[in-house]
TrEMBL record:
This is Pyruvate kinase, alpha/beta domain. Keywords: Kinase, Pyruvate, Transferase. It comes from the Bacteria. It comes from Sporomusa termitida. One of its GO terms (molecular function) is kinase activity. The lineage of its organism: Bacteria, Bacillati, Bacillota, Negativicutes, Selenomonadales. Pfam families: PK_C. The keyword tRNA processing does not apply. Residues 14-157 form the Pyruvate kinase C-terminal domain. The keyword Ubl conjugation does not apply.
Length: 178
């Protein structure tokens, strides 16, 4: 499915398509980018393993995380794992490029993935992060959900590799994207 526009307007349909594909393929894990937790909440009870990947602490404001403690508790009550950590396709490398100028290899990977859309870049990033955190099994296809700004507009079937071998990541299918 290719959306004519990007954004949160496609969240409900993206969730529906992702869950349908997970059931069709027998995929047990969905990894979803969700800074407020609202998009992740939509996957509660839909598959065996749901992982919500948030922005890192300090993303918008030093020492602050966008996911409230109340929302964290609600996700935990719904058996949704939460991953809050540095982003694998930016993190420290972006800090170096901001300080000294230029662009570095990981940023080149991120910007190359953005050719396919912001959401595709996000899906690769969060899938690798979840794998590195041990929240999804190694060597299995999962579904990763990302977006452009707020909400979700992109879903892919992906077999992530660890960050140390990120170029071995395999996108098997794009379910939907702008």
């Amino acid at each position: 499915m290719y959306w004519k526009s990007a954004g949160a307007v496609h969240t409900a349909k993206t969730v529906e398509l992702a869950v349908r594909k997970a059931k069709e393929y027998g995929i047990k894990s969905i990894v979803v980018a969700s800074n407020s937790g609202k998009t992740a909440e939509l996957f509660a009870g839909q598959v065996e393993n749901v992982v919500c990947v948030t922005h890192a602490n300090g993303f918008k404001e030093p020492g602050v995380n966008e996911l409230t403690q109340e929302q964290r508790a609600l996700l935990a009550e719904n058996n949704i794992n939460i991953l809050t950590t540095s982003h694998v396709l930016s993190g420290a490398e972006r800090g170096i490029s901001r300080k000294f100028g230029g662009i570095y290899p990981v940023e080149i990977i991120a910007n190359t993935l953005k050719i396919f859309g912001q959401g595709v870049k996000v899906t690769v990033e969060i899938a690798v992060m979840a794998l590195d955190a041990g929240l999804i099994p190694y060597g299995e296809d999962i579904i990763a959900i990302g977006g452009t700004g707020k909400g979700a507009d992109t879903a892919v079937v992906i077999r992530p590799a660890h960050a140390a071998s990120i170029l071995d990541t395999y996108i098997a299918e794009i379910i939907c994207k702008p």
